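Sample pair:
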Amino acid sequence: MADIKIKDDGRIGFGVYHLDPRWTSFEEFNWFVDKGYFNTYILNFDGGGGTTLSAAKKVQAAGGKAWLGSGDKGIYFSRKESLSEYMQRIDKTISIYKEKELWDDTFLGFSFDEPLLKKYHTNEDLLAMTKALYEEYGKRIFSVFSAYEVIGRKGNWDDPEGTLILEDFATEYLTDIGYDSYGFDFRVPSTERMQKKFKEMSETNPEIYDAKSYYKFYFDTLKNKVVNKDAKIWTFPCLYTTNTWAGIKSDEDYCIAHLNGLTDFLFEQENIGGVMGYGFKSWSEDNRALDFNLNRYNPDRWVRLEEVIYKTRERIENASAK
């Protein structure tokens, strides 16, 4: 087992996926940063281009921290290139951030989103990639996994030779881990359909009987897989409108309960990483996210969720200061 040592200032992170000028305008990105909702950002790997560079400067000026998100260019596929070719591409980007005095101070490390769901990325690729990145840069390596990867199945719809299940050996260099699932309602009493779903799950896993126990089961399963038992835990609350297992569309009340529930759950963990909500970018009218629900020009903006976000950041900052 590798002797993983990371620079850690004790800060607990709080952010939201896709709050990045690659997904929105700089004007909107700057406005949301200035609002002070979050202290941590995932900025998409773009080869060191001006978009991420400018965003990192904004985050640095605001006193925030950033992860370098993998995107399509930042993940390693052994079928497409050698590991040395991959690292050459990465280093070309990192050298730009170093030159601008952003890398050491602002970037926490590398972030990967459900890597094994990406076509042709294997457990072997995950290990080789994270090992090379850690040994070269000594930064944190953060990956969030889906249900398929945690206790999923072999095979992939697009890649029959691929593997969705996360294997223990591939996790050796992970310093931060998370699990994302957005359809389980924390509110009680649950809807009849939500209760039915919990009952169905309990037949296979008796320890699951409500939202908290559901997330605990999956997080425990993930933590048991991960070689580094000091890996920091991140939760991923639902902050957008989507269909849920409760048979209803998530709304402001649902998202408030989800944020509170998973923040409470996080603070019960031994190694606390942070909260990374999903998400900022609206992908359709059926899936409205914070770019719409907190938009300054939206007369129906979610002001109650906004207040809970501020309270969550305050809670996180207070805990970080201890």
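The first helix runs from residue 26 to 35.
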